[in-house]
Structures
1.
Amino acid sequence: MNKPRRALLKVIVLGDSGVGKTSLMNQYVYKKFSQQYKATIGADFVTKELQIDDKLVTLQIWDTAGQERFQSLGSAFYRGADCCVLVYDVNFKVSKGYDDGNCSVRRDGNDNVITADPVDPDAFPFILFGNKIDGGSSRMVSEKKAREWCASRGDIPYFETSAKEGYNVNEAFLCVAKMALEGE
Ligand code: GTP
Ligand code: MG
């Protein structure tokens, strides 16, 4: 029997407030960037279609709120996810982090990049984006450190991105789509 040619894949984007989650999605889907910060409230999704080999893939990308007072997504939200994108800002040494009881993403204060503790880590694949690499000398986390961290967590794929300049954004989300498709 032929495999289905279409797939609807659910991707969730997590990370601390202000790291650029919404900006990455806007750059990927609409090719737009705004300097202005407008905090996401709750969770909402955008869709993007792309072709992978002979398959038409629809990514349903869920943007979430990094701000603590808006974090109450519930486990049902994670359960259906095919891939989970963790975003951090390479220019920040310490950040408050993200925690909603199901998954926490935070910088650990030393030189590890972040810790991510999903309640059920086997349920979906993870990928890490180090965003805002256009910041130049303000960079606090080296690419080497980030890659070491990913290697120590079972080889989590890692991409350095700039939502502002559109750098590596397509490549990073293509990897997300492929991972999500594999895990389907
Ligand atoms: P919450 O919705 O609060 O969780 O934040 P967020 O992670 O969605 O961050 P958002 O995309 O709103 O971006 C926060 C700020 O960082 C905005 O002022 C953006 O313009 C800026 N920003 C996002 N991505 C980049 C980037 O790649 N480079 C630079 N220089 N600024 C960025
Ligand atoms: Mg946002």
Note: Residues 9 and 181 are 7 Å apart (CA to CA).
2.
Amino acid sequence: MLAPGVRLSDDIATREGWDDVTDATVDATFMGTALEAAKRAGEHDDVPVGCVLVENGAIIAVGENRREVDRDPSAHAEIVALRAAASRRPSWRMDGVTAYVTLEPCVMCAGALLNARVARVVIGAMDEKAGAVGSRYNVLSDPRLLHEADVTYDVRADDSVRLLSEFFSPRRG
Ligand code: ZN
């Protein structure tokens, strides 16, 4: 299943530097799906964070933060998505999978992405207070740990920040 709106047109492919253009467009599109999941989290009063897992250009799982609605401290968007993907795959291993996350993963989620062997993580906004992929810690690029992932930052960060600010706005409700 291809994400809606993903089109790799021949027109783009004939232009010089099309690899970069295409990668950035694809990243922005999948992050859009993660942002929709984040919005759903906000609708059930969870902090709006979303995660999409992609393999070979296709979405294999989508997760939104469900900590409050499920009363589960581990139900962050990344964990929800990883569980959904693993339940449909022959293995828990996420080799070759890219995770799109609207907010920099926390220590728990960075650890889960690492343990799942996710190949690449694409991040929207940074979490300077609790982020574990560059802000407070750098769990996904630590040679002392068992796995490292490629990381891309700042993909639709403004959209993610807007969702979070609206959620935490005192005028809400
Ligand atoms: Zn987390």
Note: Residues 1-15 have pLDDT under 50 and may be disordered.
